[in-house]
């Protein structure tokens, strides 16, 4: 599912805009680790990317995050 999110044109535009705004390279906004101990494997994403990913996955998440003020720029 993450690969579908990352291949989306809107996602790419969001990541470039976020990179430009906060000055953190895209390569550091999303970090994955494979191999080694299973506790150290997984994917980490910047909190702003996590919100955008959640919104991409679920319209219910969009509504909930807007209602609770957890969306940057909508507070």
What keywords describe this structure?
11% strand; two-stranded antiparallel sheet; mainly alpha; 75 residues; 2 strands
Task: Describe what this molecule looks like in 3D.
The structure is a single chain. This protein is mainly α. The chain has one domain (2-67). 59% of the residues lie in helices and 11% in strands. It has 5 helices and 2 strands. It has a two-stranded antiparallel ribbon with strand order 1-2. A hairpin with an 8-residue loop joins β1 and β2 (42-45). α4 packs across α5 (59-67). The protein is globular, with a radius of gyration of 14 Å. The mean pLDDT is 89.
User: Number of helical segments?
Assistant: 5
> Main β-sheet: number of strands, strand sense, barrel status?
2 strands, antiparallel
- Number of strand elements: 2
Structural class based on helices, strands and sheet pairing? mainly alpha
The value of Rg in angstroms is 14 Å
Give the low-confidence spans: none
Number of domains: 1
* Strands in their spatial order, largest beta sheet: 1-2
What share of residues are in beta strands? 5-15%
Q: Helix and strand string, N-terminal first?
A: HHHEEHH
Report how far apart the termini are: 29 Å
Percent helix, as a range, is: 55-70%
Question: Rough shape?
Answer: globular
Tell me, rounded to a whole number, the average pLDDT: 89
């Amino acid at each position: 599912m993450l690969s579908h999110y990352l291949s989306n044109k809107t996602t790419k535009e969001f990541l470039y805009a976020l990179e430009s705004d906060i000055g953190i390279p895209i390569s550091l906004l999303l970090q994955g680790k494979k191999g080694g101990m299973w506790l150290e494997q997984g994917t980490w994403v910047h909190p702003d990317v996590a919100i955008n990913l959640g919104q991409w996955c679920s319209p219910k998440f969009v509504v909930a995050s807007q209602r609770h003020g957890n969306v940057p720029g909508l507070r």
